[in-house]
Amino acid sequence: MLPVFVFRPLWTFCLLSLASASYCQRVNPNDPSWRNAQTSHEVTKYNGTSLLKLCQLSDPRRISVYLDNILVARPVGSDNHKRVGMYLKRTMEELGYYVEIDRFSEQTIAGSRTFRNVIGVLDPSAPRWLTLACHYDSKDMRPEFDFMGATDSAFPCAVLLDVAHSLSPYISNRGATDVTLQLVFFDGEEAFRDWTQTDSLYGSRHLAKLWADRLYPPYNSYNTREIHRIDYLVLLDLLGAPGASIPNYTPTNDPLIYNTFWDTELRLRQLPNCMDTSTSTVFTGYSLNANVEDDHMPFHHQGVRIMHMIPTPFPRVWHTKQDDRSALEWKCMTNIASIVRAFTARYLGIRI
Question: What domains sit in the chain, N to C, each tagged with a CATH number?
Answer without folding.
Answer: 2-348 (3.40.630.10)
